[in-house]
What we know:
Alpha-Beta Plaits, 94 residues, four-stranded antiparallel β-sheet, alpha+beta, 4 strands
Amino acid sequence: MRKYEVVFIVKPLEEEATNGVIAKFENLVAAQGGVIDKIDRWGKRRLAYEIKDLMDGYYCIFYITGEPKVVNELDRVMKITDEILKHMIVKEEE
Length: 94
């Protein structure tokens, strides 16, 4: 099992909708056999540059332990989810 750090930015939405998007990814990780060690919600922040005509976004970080297939599926789903502006997955050093 490896440790990963997943950073993603959600479009600025209503609080319920934002929580729904985050919950969707929490459930996806659990369904793939991964474990979320910690969730760090930074909240709504101003973006450094405009992304898809937006200047704000909701930042969230997942610290995950799991097999590579977990992050592969997470990456695939994040790429096709319209509510995600940007995401990045990094394998932590051992």
